[in-house]
Design brief:
Layout: H1 2-15, H2 22-25, E1 31-36, E2 50-58, E3 61-76, E4 84-87, E5 92-98, E6 101-121, E7 124-151, E8 154-184, E9 189-216, E10 221-229, E11 234-250
Antiparallel strand pairs: 1-2, 1-11, 2-3, 3-6, 4-5, 5-7, 6-7, 7-8, 8-9, 9-10, 9-11
Length: 251
């Protein structure tokens, strides 16, 4: 937030002569696209990477839908384990290696807010309001271990592969009251920030881990597989959050 305030201070000094009338920017029919200025500040609009819009249904009263989205993936390379003696007398030794562990997550959500201007003075506008929304997400993780057999350094026919695949879905609902301010740099550009105090309720839906074990003895393969249902988790959080610098483009 310190960087955001510093940027606002610099802009205030350099563009004060071009500042617009906030009362004009909050008239009925006014529209704007809202962008999280995450490049300037660590905060982001709506709690995730998001893009929003604002439409004034009456003077000083605006609807504010926000689309939230996110995607992440990770690949971990694991160093092969040390050889394990399987039959010291016969010279058999098992060697363990790992497939790359891959994980990914996707989430999507929508917020709908109502914003009411309570003070418009000069180029600044102070507003209050409320917002409600939801977020849906999914997570997956794949990992595997491979075992090969050698005898006196000579590869043998026996192999074994053990793998796990986890899949999880999540959902969350949020409800918050908000207090914010917006500064109209020009008739078409505004900068703002916001405090929110609210409630968030989250839970896991399907959360399963599929396990499989395939053993090859040189002639046939024996496979075992089953699915583990993991315990469901519910979370509830109440508190304040700060939305970082938000850029508004009006049209």
């Amino acid at each position: 937030m310190k960087r955001a305030f510093l940027i606002l201070a610099v802009l205030a000094c350099t563009t004060a002569a071009f500042a617009a009338d906030a009362a004009k920017g909050t008239k009925a029919g006014g529209k704007a696209l809202l962008f999280s200025a995450s490049g300037f500040d660590a905060g982001n609009f709506g709690g995730q990477y998001a893009i929003g819009a604002k439409y004034y249904i009456a003077g000083g009263l605006a609807l504010r839908p926000v689309l939230k989205f996110g995607y992440g993936s990770q690949t971990d390379k694991i160093t092969p384990g040390a050889a394990d003696s399987g039959n010291a007398g016969g010279g058999n030794v098992w060697h363990r290696t790992f497939d790359d562990t891959k994980s990914s997550s996707v989430n999507f959500g929508l917020d709908l807010g109502l914003e009411k201007s309570v003070l418009a003075k000069g180029s600044a506008d102070v507003h209050v309001g409320g917002v409600a929304g939801f977020t849906l997400g999914s997570y997956s993780r794949d990992s595997a271990e491979n075992y090969t057999l050698t005898n006196a350094g000579v590869p043998q026919a026996g192999t074994e592969k053990i793998s796990w695949k986890q899949k999880r879905t999540t959902s969350a609902f949020n409800l918050a009251a908000l207090l914010g301010a917006e500064w109209f740099v020009t008739d078409n550009i505004s900068l703002g920030g916001e405090y929110q105090f609210g409630l968030s309720i989250g839970s896991t839906g399907k959360d399963e881990t599929a396990y499989s074990d395939a053993i090859y003895n040189g002639a046939t393969t024996t496979s075992t597989s089953y699915t583990i249902t993991n315990p469901k988790v519910s979370t509830t959080a109440i508190g304040f959050s700060t939305v970082g610098l938000v850029l508004g483009i009006r049209f």
